[in-house]
Each structure stands twice: as C-alpha cells, then as structure tokens.
Amino acid sequence: MKYPINIMKYPIVINSFIFLTLCLFLFACGEADKVNGVPEKKDEIILSDHTLSTDETWTPAQSYTINGELRIPPTVELEITPGTIVNFGVDAYVVVRGTLKIGTPLSQTVLDDFVYLSPNSGSPDSGDWRGFIFDHTHDVDSFFRGVVIENAKIALDIKTASPTIIDSLLQHNDTAIALDGSNSIILHNRIINNEIGIITIGRQTRPRIEKNNIFENNSGIICENVQSIIKYNNLERNDFSLRLQVKFDLNVSDNWWGSTSEKIIDELILDSQDSNLITKPVGTVTYQPVSALHFTDAGPRE
Predict the structure, then answer these.
(1) Residue 116: pLDDT band by 50, 70, 90 thresholds?
(2) Nearest to 155 by CA among 171, 138, 137, 177
(3) Is 21 exposed, middle or buried (0-12, 13-18, 19+ CB in 10 A)?
C-alpha cells in the first residue's frame, strides 16, 4: 500500500522545489520576451530645463527624455554612446557651449549601432522639437557619427563652431544643417526629405560638404558661403538641388546631379540665370566638370 507524502515532514525540500520551479518559469518568460522582441525595461531619465554640471556619458542602459532646454556649459562634455535613444518634448532643444560627442568615435574604423534623436510623440511631424544649437563656441572637438536626427526645426544649428558630421541620417526636419561661420566637415551622410538639407552662411569659413546623399529635399543646399567645398555628392530628386543666395559666383564641380544633361542640371540650380525666380542680385553657379555616374560610396558607410 502506498502512502501519500506528508509535505509537512519535508519543508526544506518542498520549498526548494517551489523556488526552483519559480526561477525556471521566470527565466523562460525572459527568454520568450527576447525571442518575441519585447525590450527589457530601462531606467528612465527625464531632464527638464536642465544644466549639466559635470561631464556625463549617456548609454543604452537608460532611456532619456529632454523637455525644455538642456544646456551644456563651457568646459563640460556630454558623450552619448552608440545604441542610445534620446527623445525630445515639444520645442525641446540643446544649447552647446561645451563639447558634445554623439555616436561612434571618429578614431574607430567600424561604425557601431546608431544613436536615435527624435521627438517624444506617437505621430511626429517636422519641427516638433528645436534641435541642437552650437552657440559661438569655436569648438572643433564635437562630433555626430552614426546618428539619426528626425523631425526638428533646425536639427543642427551651428554658429561659429565646427563639429564633424559623418555617417549619419538627417530626415524630416525643417532644416537639417545650418552652418554660420563654420568649418565643419559634413561627410558620408544621408540628408533626405527635409525642407532644407544644408544652408551655409558666413563668408570667412570653408565648410567641406563631400560624399553625401542629398535626396528629395525642397532645397538640397542653400549657399551664401561661396568658400564652401561641395564635391562628390549625389544631389538627386530635390526640387532645387542648389540655391545661390549671394551676389558672388560659386563653383561646385564633380557632383552627380541625377543626369549629365546641362539642361536638366540648370533646372536644378537657382542662380543669376533664373532672373524670373529671384528677388535680389545673385552670382552664377558653375558645375563643370560633372560626375558621369552616381557615387556609390556616398552616404552613411556600414
């Protein structure tokens, strides 16, 4: 005759069994979440009208939301590492007076995960947040590499500073990049579906805009700085690929315009030849020689 086990006689064994079963269940649930793509919960950091007081590094271990103004004062450095996501409330913005390093370090050969900078909205629209303002810092150490910036009024408003912008995607902004008195290097980016891709002003500087895919913007590049180096870019499917807004002439040779036809290229450029479309005297854009082919090595590198 078999007798039922008296569980009261074996409390340690039974409790250990229950504990082990519970651990296995929780582990299985966690593995299922990973398989089903459910993200692990992260610590949430919300900054509202905040000034950094010391150097900081933001990592993918936390989620970040910025409301109002985030200030990076002189002598302070903010680093945002690959894979981090930062959301911005309506009209939020970052004022950079110190140093800002976002994404994969420039010294690293291989590009890491992207950093995502976008509005904190379920249905974002262009201009939902204000963007980054470099406030006359003369800084050359800041950079954006492997960064996605979306739906800002002016994603990167760079005044008398020269951050490097490389291997990044800027899309659905009112203006992607505004350069005023800047020697920035803008290299291997995809600048797409913005009202304005890049605007340059300030005559005494020489920004380099090279090997970018500048597609499907209302204006690809608006240029008031005729010292700008604009070469080896793919300038395609923009309403105007280049608009000159100063009375001096500008040379932009060795770019691909989607065609080698002078007639088609002339239609993509707004300059002195379009007297019926302009309201003030401007110079003339020369673009010969043109590239005969699309640059396959432009845009973000893997």
Answers:
(1) very high
(2) 177
(3) exposed
* pLDDT in the model for residue 28: 52
Q: Do 263 and 222 belong together in one domain? A: yes
Which letter does DSSP use for residue 175 in this model?
E
Per-residue model confidence as pLDDT tens digits over 262-281: 999 999 999 999 988 888 89
Range of the domain at 3: 1-40
- Preceding amide of 82 cis, omega within 30: no
Which amino acid is it at 185? Answer: I
The contacts of residue 150 (CB under 8 Å, 6+ apart) are 117, 118, 119, 124, 170, 171, 172, 173
Q: What integer pLDDT is reported at residue 148 of this predicted model? A: 98
Same domain, 188 and 94: yes
Buried b (16+ CB within 10 A) or exposed e, 152-180: bbbbbbbbbbbbbbbbbbbbbbbbbbbbb
Are 110 and 79 part of one and the same domain? yes
Query: Which SS3 state, helix, strand or coil, does residue 15 take?
Result: helix
- Does residue 34 sit in the same domain as residue 54? no
Tokens read off for 290: 């043109």
* 292 in a structural domain: no
H runs (alpha helix) in 59-168 = none
Average pLDDT score, the chain: 88
Q: In which band, very low, low, confident or very high, does the pLDDT at 124 lie, cut at 50, 70 and 90?
A: confident
> Facing residues of 142 across strands?
none
Q: How far is CA 265 from CA 51, 166, 171, 270, 291, in A?
A: 47, 27, 24, 10, 12
Counting the structural domains of the chain, the total is 2
Looking at residue 123, what is its pLDDT? Answer: 75
